[in-house]
């Protein structure tokens, strides 16, 4: 298994340096790399990231346009979108193209830490050959799934968790993709089978 590493791709130098500083303190044994553009990131030679924190608005190739290139270069990397553009269509597109999580730049730092720790934990646990792969849900997706299982609408879930309806919709799309289903009812049924919810 390759050693863990985190790669940040964001063209805003101040934001990027702040994230590097925060992650270097939180994950002092994990190398943190950063790049101002997707083109520059793809030229990095000695980097095999476990997690890629990817901005959408980048010079040249945008984050969404470049996700396929990143997956070709580092197929095992988990891509987390970090963007101020948390519109529902943007979240849906990112999830459809393989993002495992979507973080808003307005989120609190501890939210990012929780998501990254969860992803690193999942990456560190390699299941034996032939076992069922459990879905990789972020803590927030797990919360949303629990409320979906109780029959709550996106609007009601948003009120319960203090999130916008658009943000809840993005989390629902993410957990549907993680569970490999297309409808909420199928997600609830599969989650019950896996013991994720009662």
UniProtKB/TrEMBL annotation:
The keyword DNA-binding applies. Residues 130-195 form the HTH luxR-type domain. The modification 4-aspartylphosphate is found at residue 55. CDD domains: LuxR_C_like (cd06170), REC_NarL-like (cd17535). Keywords: DNA-binding, Phosphoprotein. Residues 5-120 form the Response regulatory domain. The keyword Nucleus does not apply. One of its GO terms (biological process) is regulation of DNA-templated transcription. Pfam families: GerE (PF00196), Response_reg (PF00072). GO terms for molecular function: DNA binding. PANTHER family: HTH-TYPE TRANSCRIPTIONAL REGULATOR YHJB-RELATED, NARL SUBFAMILY. This is DNA-binding response regulator, NarL/FixJ family, contains REC and HTH domains. It comes from Methylobacterium phyllostachyos.
